[in-house]
Design brief:
mainly alpha, 4-stranded mixed β-sheet, 420 residues, 18 helices
Length: 420
């Protein structure tokens, strides 16, 4: 009897290819698009940039240094102090640091191209560059006067950004802001009696390697969205199953089942089991395609099947619960609210769209034990090589949710003798 009811539900799903395409094709498309579009953000990689910075050099660096050195030579200090000051001036040139150490560094030399110009470009020519940097005459001399002789006049660089290249302009702005902060710090240290070279050597000797806290394999963008989208679209299986169940009532199939003296709970068991089968097959197909095309592979297949089965059972519980509400209210309102409103909320809280770890706080704790978040968190940990015992709290949350849904569905489902 139960086998025939399950077969009936599965045949109804099979005869609706449109729903099958949505449940299988849509999540795979989203995995591909989101993984490619947001890969650099999730993976912490820098996007491909081609920044062209035009530099208009109007300052005489050597002449500025010479004037300051002559000024130091005229100071009433000991020869040793003069020598130390002159060596510091020669070794700490702001424009040399900017043009040679910053822009020519390993981090920026491949993405920032410095182009020297003699005159300021026209408005039309300026559009070819991400930014135009003008170094005014006397900058070097003013910098040393302000830093070492406490002259109030602060030197400044004139940077004009190309508004049509927002990303490149933002990078240049951040680089110059960081450069300004670093220069201000290191130029202030000598006045405080601190040797900048000593601090730099001390910091360099204490810097170690960067590792993840748990020393587990990080999740890349494609894997992240493969798990997030698959879990989200599992819930659409429940909404689809509830909609098909209501169609049976509208087409008098449910009435004929009651006339055949089949208990009502058995009818809902058929919905429950068929939804489990469909959700389980959906996940295996999606992850199978992700493995073949995107290389998303599980280190422990058995643990993957355990998590997938428990999530499929929970989705079956949602299908029965929504079907019971539909039957009790004799409308599709529960299915519509669940598919259009609740599933996006479940997906957002669970972390299908963005990593909830970036939000942190109590939201992250709630996410790990929400219906979608528990499944996503369990999948992530399995992908990183954790054992089932390490995800017992997430699996317990999924099991409790399933039991609660089935209990509520049993209380809500119509009783024999009530109007059909």
């Amino acid at each position: 009897m139960i086998a025939q009811l399950i077969k009936k539900e599965l045949l109804m799903v099979w005869r609706r290819p449109r729903e099958l395409v949505i449940l299988l094709f849509m999540p795979f498309v989203l995995i591909t698009i989101l993984g490619a579009a947001l890969g650099s953000i999730i993976d912490g990689e820098a996007p491909d940039l081609n920044i062209k910075l035009a530099v208009i050099q109007k300052d005489d660096i050597e002449g500025g240094e010479g004037k300051i050195i002559d000024k130091v030579e005229s100071l009433p200090i000991s020869p040793e102090e003069k020598t130390a000051a002159i060596e510091g001036i020669k070794s700490f040139n702001p424009l040399g640091i900017l043009l040679e150490d910053v822009f020519a560094s390993k981090e920026f030399k491949d993405i920032i191209q410095v182009i020297e110009l003699e005159d300021e470009p026209s408005a039309k020519e300026a559009l070819k560059y991400s930014g135009v940097l003008e170094i005014p005459a006397g900058f070097t001399e003013q910098f040393y006067l302000h830093s070492f002789f406490n002259v109030k006049e602060v030197p400044s660089l004139n940077l004009k950004l190309n508004e049509s290249s927002a990303l490149e302009g933002s990078v240049l702005k951040d680089v110059f802001s960081s450069f300004q902060e670093e220069i201000s710090l290191w130029s202030t240290l000598p006045s405080l009696g601190v040797d900048p070279e000593t601090i730099q050597n001390s910091l360099s000797s204490k810097v170690g390697n960067t590792e993840t806290v748990t020393k587990r394999k990080p999740i890349n963008a494609v894997t992240y969205y493969a798990i997030g989208m698959c879990v989200m679209f599992m819930f659409y299986v429940a909404g689809n199953a509830a909609a098909l169940a209501l169609e049976e009532k509208e087409n008098q199939i449910y009435g004929r089942i009651l006339l055949a003296n089949i208990p009502i709970p058995i009818f809902f068991v058929g919905i429950f089991v068929s939804t489990i089968v469909v959700a389980f097959m959906q996940m295996n197909i999606l992850f199978g395609m992700s493995a073949l095309i995107h290389g998303v592979r599980w280190p422990n297949v058995f643990d993957y099947f355990v998590v997938t089965f428990l999530l499929s059972v929970m989705v079956g519980g949602f299908a029965v619960f929504i079907s019971a509400i539909n039957y009790r209210s004799n409308s599709r309102s529960a299915t519509q609210v669940f598919s259009s409103f609740l599933i996006p909320i479940i997906a957002f809280i669970g972390g299908s769209f963005i990593p909830v770890s970036q939000i942190g706080g109590i939201f992250e704790e709630i996410s790990q034990y929400s219906p979608g978040g528990a499944g996503i968190s369990a999948y992530y940990k399995i992908m990183q090589g954790y054992a089932l015992s390490d995800i017992s709290s997430q699996l317990l949350s999924v099991s409790i949710t399933t039991v609660l849904l089935l209990f509520l569905a049993f209380l809500i489902q119509p009783r024999r003798g009530e109007s059909i």
